[in-house]
Amino acid sequence: MLREIRIQNLGVIDDAVLELSAGLNVLTGETGAGKTMVVSGLGLLLGARADAAMVRTGAKNAVVEGVVDVGPEHPASVRVIEAGGDVQDGLILVRTLSAGGRSKAHVGGRTVPVSVLGELGELLVAVHGQADQWRLRQPEQHRVVLDRFAGDLVSEPLGRYVALYDDFHQCGAELRHLRALARDRAREVDILQTGLEEIEAIDPLPGEDLELRAEDERLAHSDGLRASAGQAHGLLTGDPDSLYSVAGGADGAGAGDMGGGDVAGQLGAARAALAPMTGHDQALADLDRRLQELGYLTADLGTDLAAYLSDVDVDPARLAWVQQRRADLARLQRKYGDTADEILLWSKESAARLTELEGADDRADELQVRLETVRAGLTTCAGELSVARQHAAVEFGARVTTELSHLAMGKAVVQVGLGRRPDPEGLSLGEGADPVRFSRHGVDDVEILLAASSGAPARSVAKTASGGELSRVMLALEVVTGSADVPTFVFDEVDAGVGGRAALDVGARLAALATSAQVIVVTHLAQVAAYADQHLVVRRTDDGHVTASGVVAVSGQERLRELARMMAGVEDSEVAIEHARELLSVTIRH
């Protein structure tokens, strides 16, 4: 509910604070005291269009601030929290209007576009003034009002209908997509098949490109590899065959000159030189042991070099095959990936995609069958939903008519018209075969109709009723349908053109609505004000302004004086005060 509203520099209001309570809050005051400015300030707080002329003369800006108590689960709180706002101490809304016409809005401590105030306002407050009947002026809202009244009678078939509608919409969209891309799909199939056939013909293996590169490098330099390994082997072991093959000498002189110069022989000679003395010094013995280890390592290395020499392959045919294989892989790499592994990944993904594309026609056939099945179910469910709304419409019209009879509209008759006119926002369920268009809420075009007097034709309530009558119609609708999710209702001049007994009925209906929601009413009638749970009075100072103390909650004798002023124009008359006391007792019994 609205806990507090503060208005500064707006019209005749300098600085006023309205502390509101749950239940029925009534705002009264003499004509021109500023009640309209309070409603205008509330409108600004809820995102209404701003006019710089509303700023009090001489002030730089007008400010309206409101504190709303809503739970963290309420849609308005969720919206603010998601935007980074704070609702821990209540939802705080602020609207600032400069004398130059610039307008700013803050919600939960954060700057927001003014439009956000409007969106939150629709979740928090329903304003029913002579120019604010947006719910009755929007045809779609007529359906919302009827469905809310119907409750489970409509919500159950509507839930089934919405599920079928969404399913139909999804299936239809997928089917249209498949059919629209049939040519592109055939082209993609050809491309994928060609690529997969090309890869299958070469049949690359994981990591093969790296292995072939290493083998190509080895085979292309096999002569040099043999020469280097042979020379190293000869120098380590003194093998004349190795030296001869490396040096290329035909006379073998080089090999003969190496006798005793090989590494193994030099290590043996070094150990022989140390041997006589190793028993006299441990350090020398350690050096001898290291020479021994070097001898073992040299022998092992010679053996490994010999093995390498025997494995070095000089095979021109193998080299040619490797180079051709690499060329084949390079051709695939230019199209499908930088490595053999990437080529294989493309092949795997493309095979899956090809399977999907080749099954698209089967999928389209399945969707067409499903579409027809869902269409039949949707048509049946739409019929059930229409019947439920027709039953609800009869009771709804009768109950609202009864309520209006207590609101000085005794000759008015409310009906609900249900039609099946084309809905431009709907989705046609046939290629020209279905005469109606199905929207997400059914095939019904709902319109609340009002016959203002007996014998008068029933017309749309938004076009037939006057401003005051619209407020009373909305009051009747709210009483009949309940408060729904909107926690606060504001009625401005709901009692226009009403008096006497009818005014008591208006007050009683407002009080009934206030049992399930907060209600704020601006009124001139004591019969309405007498029902208030909290009575607020707007008072101007002698200079014509409303100050911080200009909006006060009255009770007891003060309230009786205000009711007396509203009834008789004077507040000091004992007779008028007695009438006010009698009025309060009547409202208690009413």
**Which range does the strand content fall in?**
5-15%
Q: What is the count of β-strands?
A: 17
CATH topology of the domain at 1-129 and 493-554: Rossmann fold
The appropriate CATH architecture of the domain at 1-129 and 493-554 is 3-Layer(aba) Sandwich
Largest sheet: 6 strands, antiparallel
Uncertain segments are 244-260, 429-434
- General form: elongated
What fraction, in percent, of the residue positions are helical?
55-70%
Strand pairing plus helix content: what structural class?
alpha+beta
Taking strands numbered 1, 2, ... along the chain, how are they ordered across the largest sheet?
Answer: 2-1-4-5-6-7
Q: Mean pLDDT, rounded to whole units?
A: 82
CATH H-level name of the domain at 1-129 and 493-554... which superfamily? P-loop containing nucleotide triphosphate hydrolases
Number of helices: 22
Rg from alpha-carbon coordinates: 47 Å
CATH class of the domain at 1-129 and 493-554: Alpha Beta
Q: What is the first-to-last residue Cα distance? A: 26 Å
3D architecture notes:
With 590 residues, the protein is of the alpha+beta class. It has helices at 35-45, 75-82, 114-124, 134-137, 139-150, 152-180, 182-202, 208-220, 222-237, 240-247, 253-257, 263-274, 282-311, 316-336, 340-358, 360-405, 461-464, 467-481, 500-513, 526-529, 556-568, 574-589; strands at residues 2-10, 13-19, 24-28, 61-68, 91-98, 103-107, 110-112, 125-128, 413-419, 427-428, 437-438, 445-451, 459-460, 488-492, 518-522, 534-538, 551-554. It has a 6-stranded antiparallel beta sheet, covered by helices on one side. A 6-stranded mixed beta sheet has the order 8-14-15-3-16-17. A 3-stranded antiparallel beta sheet has the order 9-12-13. The radius of gyration is 47 Å and the shape is elongated. The two termini are 26 Å apart. Mean pLDDT is 82; it is low at 244-260 and 429-434.
